[in-house]
């Protein structure tokens, strides 16, 4: 998937290289002048993500270490114009990610280490606040809430960490904030953006043993992360 994304991004860069002189030049040719007057428009996005856990422990002990990795995003965009500078956006997408957890007080790597692979179907509802357009660019801020279904949660499994099975809840709720810039090219609008996501709820399913060395010290384990998305309208 990453190879496919990089290939598409390279093709896009080759195709649009000549156009950027017109976008950022001293006297740019105005592209897609009436694009933002549409009541509704659609698009899609590709991007990267980096998820992590914010872990709060219920007593003083060695910390559980959480290491993030780089994942891949792909999805659709539906945009509804509410006002000249305000849009409502729905951006359902598929997010692949992995987090690596290292638990303290174990003598071997097999027990101490857990790979937490997650595949989220993400449903964000966002408000986009745009500045006035300047030539062929238009910066914006966005924020909102979302819910996500974790297809890799193992929530219904009877086995737990004693059988090398790390469990998380299926549904998670988030709030999101970010910023980006709309770049108007000759035939389409390109919008790179960066967004932070923060979970409202504890996602850890405790082990069957209340004194589990993996989960008994955890007060809450909440997802946090950031996305870098490239949107095409």
Automatic annotation (TrEMBL):
Q: Which Pfam families match?
A: OMP_b-brl_2 (PF13568)
**Matches recorded under InterPro entries:** Beta-barrel_OMP_2 (IPR025665)
The alphabetical list of record keywords is: Signal
Q: Does the keyword Signal apply?
A: yes
Which N-terminal residues, if any, form the signal peptide? 1-18
Question: Which residue intervals define the domain Outer membrane protein beta-barrel in the entry?
Answer: 37-203
Its name, as the record gives it, is Outer membrane protein beta-barrel domain-containing protein
In its UniProt entry, the species of origin is given as Flavobacterium lacus
For this protein's source organism, the top of the classification is: Bacteria, Pseudomonadati, Bacteroidota, Flavobacteriia, Flavobacteriales
């Amino acid at each position: 998937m990453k190879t496919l994304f990089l290939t598409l991004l390279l093709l896009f860069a080759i195709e649009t290289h000549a156009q950027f002189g017109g976008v950022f030049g001293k006297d740019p040719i105005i592209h897609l002048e009436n694009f933002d007057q549409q009541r509704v428009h659609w698009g899609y996005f590709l991007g990267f993500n980096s998820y992590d856990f914010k872990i709060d422990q219920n007593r003083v002990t060695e910390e559980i270490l959480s290491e993030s990795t780089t994942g891949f995003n792909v999805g659709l965009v539906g945009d509804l114009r509410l006002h000249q500078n305000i849009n409502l956006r729905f951006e359902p997408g598929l997010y692949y990610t992995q987090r690596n957890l290292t638990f303290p007080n174990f003598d071997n790597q097999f027990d101490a280490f857990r790979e937490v692979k997650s595949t989220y179907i993400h449903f964000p509802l966002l408000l986009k606040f745009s500045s006035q357009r300047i030539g062929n660019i238009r910066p914006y801020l966005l924020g909102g809430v979302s819910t996500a279904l974790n297809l890799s949660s193992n929530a219904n499994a009877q086995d737990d960490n004693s059988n090398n099975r790390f469990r998380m809840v299926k549904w998670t709720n988030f709030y999101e904030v970010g910023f980006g810039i709309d770049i108007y090219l000759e035939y389409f609008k390109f919008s790179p953006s960066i967004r932070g996501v923060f979970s409202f709820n504890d996602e850890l399913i405790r082990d069957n043993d209340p004194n589990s060395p993996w989960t008994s010290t955890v007060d809450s384990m909440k997802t946090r992360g950031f996305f870098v998305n490239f949107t095409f309208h």
